[in-house]
Amino acid sequence: MNIAILALEGCFDTGLTSVLDALATANELAQLMGIQTTGYQVSVVGMRSEVHTAQGLHIPATPYRQSTEPDWVIVPALGYKMPDTLVPALDRPDVCDAMVALRDWARGGASIAAACIGTFVLAESGLLDGGEATTTWWLTPLFRQRYPRVRLDAHRMIIPSGKMLTAGAGFSHVDLALWLIRQNNPELASLVARYLVVDSRPSQGAYMISEHLARADPLIERFDHWVRDRLDQPLTLDAAATALAISKRTLTRRMRDTIGKTPISYIQDLRIERAVHLLRTSDHSVERIAGMVGYADGTTLRTLLRRRLGRGVRELRR
Question: How distant is the alpha carbon of residue 268 from its chain centre?
Fold first, then answer.
């Protein structure tokens, strides 16, 4: 499989190198273990003759116009983690050129993958329009605002959609690489994961900080504080709207437009977040924690943890 990794100026060092290391490990282990696979021919492609990472490392890159036609293109994250630095970076000449290159590669039949903030570059190209995608969890409000034609599900770690593939936050670059390896050979992907000590992480839900997302809108931040103060109580949309002196429709619309959730779903997220914290930091029983976060019994909490996070109580308490 011919894979081009698109390294843009200021790319996230770990994102770029973790993909390179995972694919190189797959090649080495396949040869060592006699596993039949086509292997991965990987090249680092740049829009300029010189590329420097966010930490200042110099990366030799094949100029885009001199690269061969790839089967897959991978876009690692840019090293700009917050909106005030990311948004200007998306208007840089080399990033705009990269969007043209991505569209050219797609027209040529290549599949395209992006992880973390690299998903913004892919979304800017328009290639995600009409499809599903995930992105780095703390930038979901910005992603929804800029790309309303993309069906965003930031809880999922990996989302394949047509010939596009997106992955969540920073270290999901490894999940992306393992997904690619798994499509060719599940045995090899499992072996690489064991050598690199990578656990299965189907969801970003366990890592999200709801309070951070709420800061994107003053109304949602007020709602967030109101809910946190009452997590052990029965909560309704009517009560929240009355407390905030707004209509239920306004609260629901602002939640949907900013973070893509209903108020009731957000309340459940906060309850799960608090429960996970208590499971990790206290000796309380599951039944007691369930009551502390507003659930009738431990069975309900166990079911929600498994459904939302892909993990049960035992795994969280390790």
Answer: 20
